[in-house]
Design brief:
With 362 residues, the protein is an alpha/beta fold. Helix content is 42%, strand content 22%. The chain is built from 12 helices and 13 strands.
Length: 362
Amino acid sequence: MNKCPICGSPTYRNITGSIGRMTVDEVDCYRCGRYIIDRSGSMELDYLRNSNQFNNITMSKISGWIRENQDLGIVEINRKKLQSLISLPELTVFEKADKMLLHLAKQFPIAGSYLTYKFNEIFGILERIKKKTFPEEGLGNSKEFYKNITDLLPLISIGRIIDGYEFEFIWKQYIIAKNEYISQYNSIPMITPTGWAYLETFRHPNPESKKAFVAMWFTDEMKEILEKYIQPAAFDAGEYKAETIDEKDFNGDVNDAIIGEIRNSKFVIADFTGNRGGVYYEAGFAKGFNIPVIFTCNEEWWDKEVERKVKAKLNNGEIESVKITEKRKVHFDLNHQSFILWKDGKDLYDKLVKRIKSLPLT
């Protein structure tokens, strides 16, 4: 049985291949989901383990991030991505509980439905994975084991659960006993009215809106990207009208106009190409009002150093062309977000349509 190189769980498949000249492992893990890890990522994992920097906490961060980004297709993991993910802050107990409850509501969306997962098996499953004693498929009781891990390991991953003890505390003491979000009716759990009422607080503030606000760098090239690819993607994904603030007629302070447009939008597309400060501001404002933000960036502006020539005024007053190194990098606080990295307009269009359709917009 193949094991996931990140979390150690069984995998549906784990094959070695190549992308161009680069050797990669394609993994489809019961816990993490699908991802590709290149040679630099595999070497970084070995280094982290050998230097005692890889433990259940760092593993849960990496696994949870991969699982949450499955809507983008197969996730790519390399050395830089691993270094970014292990530095993420640890989630609080209530943040982990929220993620678990939202996941269960998505899997069992009808109020009054029984949660048919065998939650009492989670501790034993995690212990078996830890000891590497899970059964081979087709032998003994393996059918029930693999049915259970198919149901339960994504929940563990989404919740960034460290081990069985933490799960039991959050599930029994916090979600069931303290907050009463889950009840045990005839020993079978279900989401309570209190739980559904709490889930309502996560709903979108503008359920009927067909507007999308676009925060971006205003250049001729990006305006073409907006008109030919971003706006058609928003319309084709759900007949949303995507607009930037410069397309609006308004009186008064531009910041008031921006805030007003964001607050009335169904979601925000924030493109960080050019690394403009205003985009950070607008994305942060939308997040504060629980409005979904789609993070995008041209891959040439994601994490690169580019040499280019600029005109400079010398001390003697003469103008001369000089070579500078321009650092293009999204700020560390955001680079772990689920970014759409795009190569060209068509690539952005395809990924945007898929992402918009996957958003929890109701």
